[in-house]
Amino acid sequence: MLVLVVDSSTPAVTAALVEVTADGVTSRAQRSTVDARAHGELLAPQVDGVLAEVGARPAELGAIVAGLGPGPFTGLRVGLVTAATMSQVLDIPAYGVCSLDGIGHPAAAGEPVLAASDARRREVYWAVYDGAGQRLVGPEVGAPSVAAERARELAVTVAVGDGAHRYADVLGLPLRAEPRYPDPHALAVLAAERIRAGAPGDPLTPLYLRRPDAVAATARKPVLP
């Protein structure tokens, strides 16, 4: 089954096509551009690009996988709205996966790992995974020092993700170079069981974890004469 994967939870805007079969998940095409200010402009052309690369039409898709975050409000909703809209138009299921799982799961190699992405405001979105890539704690948002303390309590030995690189001095852990951002192949692998089973799609509820940076005014401002 041909499956589209999208993630816009980080500055990396990603679209990919994978083939999900009874034997596994095979990557077919991928586009990823790091630009924190252009999620809306980048994602749709990238979806078109991966489809064109394999000579497929949207109608040939069997499912969609979307990274649910955590991530900043504006960027994250681009991927989720795209996935939800295509799911409805094409009448195919969409499955959500925590975006941090797309960093921590493939990075785990027999030892606990801290996955972290940049949450701005000098904070990180983070989660801890065991040696098999199963999430133990999180996702959470907070100061890197808080993530570091929790990681020490769980005997974490390595960190991964853009947030881990950005705050490496605070975390005090060896770094894995990749994946720096959510890996679309890993997101597909984590949704593959549901895809193969033909499970109902998810509501794609975003993991914002906190209020958006910009909020609408709740009261009228006084006007001076």
Automatic annotation (TrEMBL):
One of its GO terms (molecular function) is transferase activity. Pfam families: TsaD (PF00814). One of its GO terms (cellular component) is cytosol. PANTHER family: TRNA N6-ADENOSINE THREONYLCARBAMOYLTRANSFERASE, TRNA THREONYLCARBAMOYLADENOSINE BIOSYNTHESIS PROTEIN TSAB. GO terms for biological process: tRNA threonylcarbamoyladenosine modification. Residues 36-141 form the Gcp-like domain. InterPro entries: ATPase_NBD, Gcp-like_dom, T6A_TsaB. Keywords: Transferase. This is tRNA (Adenosine(37)-N6)-threonylcarbamoyltransferase complex dimerization subunit type 1 TsaB. Transmembrane segments: none annotated.
